[in-house]
Amino acid sequence: MVKHIILWTLKEMSDSEKESVKAGIKEGLEGLKGKIPGLVEIKVITSGRLASSNADLMLDSTFESEEALKGYAKHPDHVAVADGKVRPFTVSRSCLDFEI
């Protein structure tokens, strides 16, 4: 199994815009469950952020294998969410992939 963790920082925008963007990212990415081979679990954390944080939201996902993670990266449904709901609104992205 492989964990794929992403932290994003959003671009400058109003609090209400941030909440809308976070909801769209959550809906889009969590909606990929059952559509991508090898994707075991996917959740986006958008709330509960403490003041000590330096990121706005987190993706926590699990894949059957490293090959499944590579397939996810280029899967058309994932690319559509990334290009339409994530990349236009983020200023930074950190990734940690590891075997469990």
Automatic annotation (TrEMBL):
A Pfam family that the UniProt record links to this protein: Dabb
Domain Stress-response A/B barrel residues, every copy: 2-98
Taxonomic superkingdom: Bacteria
InterPro entries: Dabb (IPR013097), Dimeric_a/b-barrel (IPR011008)
Full protein name: Stress-response A/B barrel domain-containing protein
Organism name: Treponema ruminis
Lineage: Bacteria, Pseudomonadati, Spirochaetota, Spirochaetia, Spirochaetales
